[in-house]
Amino acid sequence: MATTNGAQPEGSYFEQQRALLVSDIAASLENVLQNINKLNRSLEGVIAVGNEFGQVEGLWSQFENVMAKEPEIEGAKNAKEGAAEEGAAEEEAADMPGQRARLFAVGTKTGIVLLWNMRTPAPKTWTASSTVGPVRIIYTESPQISCLALSSLFLIHGGNDGLVQAWDPLGSSFQPIRTLSSRFASRARRQLAQAQASPQGVGINLFAAGALCLDPDPTVLRGMVSLGVRILYWSYSSSAADQYKSQKRRLRRTERGSNNGGAQFSGAARSNLKDYIANEKFELDREKQHRRKEAQRFAGRFGTELMGGSEEEMLAYAAMLSQETLEQETLRR
């Protein structure tokens, strides 16, 4: 169709609009291609623009492949980070003393104590065995284990023969640290063996350690055990801690019914000050009396204040007595 008055034909107008649209689409796809190349440099594509209808053939096949591989890449990255975190946690636990172990002990009827670590790490692969082996196996001298007590520092076992011993569960020694209660006499053990062999059985065993109780603080070596109708109590302390004892006066305890501190004075009233001075005087008198009694007991036991003399006078007196004794023995001979 032709037009007059210098107007352009309709076909050329539509071709211009189609060319502009094709150029816009091509520019948009070029931007998309650049972004995809930044994310994955291995991605390559070709943009084809048709001359007649402006059809565009894009990168759908390769783009779908990249999008399909993205979860696998993320999964591998997460697995690598998880393995690195587990390795760091294991190294941290290995550097920690005891490796944060939580011990669990079981006593058997054959006199054996088994210890497991309840925080043993699980196997990383499904092919590995999930069985947790015992950390320590203790062979005691008791025929049977009747009671157990376990803390973070030591293990105490009680046998049906009255034997009570303390063990170091994580130490290198296979011998008990201390025997708290020795077994009963051979006659009692023989009677116990005969009772076990009889049809009636043992019944109430008055020789066995019935129950054990330890101090909640594992650093305090204190506890008790029931042996038949008796209760045995023990308490041990380290002699190395004596050098840290101070000669200063100990702080007073808080007064009954008062919220004030034991060693601090609070309150500006005159009556409070008088009461405070009276309490301090009473505490000083009581400590002087306590020291006097300790000095008298020490002198009576070791004879350090015999005849009220000094140390040099006591040495001279002892030398004189020794010389007299030597002279008397010489005369007798």
UniProtKB/TrEMBL annotation:
Segments forming a coiled coil: none
Keyword Nucleus appears in the UniProt entry: yes
GO cellular component, one term: mitotic spindle pole body
Keywords: Cell cycle, Cell division, Centromere, Chromosome, Cytoplasm, Cytoskeleton, Kinetochore, Microtubule, Mitosis, Nucleus
InterPro entries in UniProt: DASH_Dad1 (IPR013958), WD40/YVTN_repeat-like_dom_sf (IPR015943), WD40_repeat_dom_sf (IPR036322)
Molecular function in Gene Ontology: microtubule plus-end binding
Predominant subcellular localization, coarse grouping: nucleus
GO terms of biological process kind: cell division
Start and end residues of each stretch annotated as Disordered: 73-95
Gene3D superfamilies: YVTN repeat-like/Quinoprotein amine dehydrogenase (2.130.10.10)
Skewed-composition ranges (Basic and acidic residues): 73-83
Pfam families referenced in this protein's UniProt entry, alphabetically: DASH_Dad1
Location in the cell: Chromosome, Centromere, Kinetochore; Cytoplasm, Cytoskeleton, Spindle; Nucleus
Similarity comment: Belongs to the DASH complex DAD1 family.
PANTHER family: DASH COMPLEX SUBUNIT DAD1 (PTHR28025:SF1)
Protein name, as recorded: DASH complex subunit DAD1
Species for this entry: Friedmanniomyces simplex
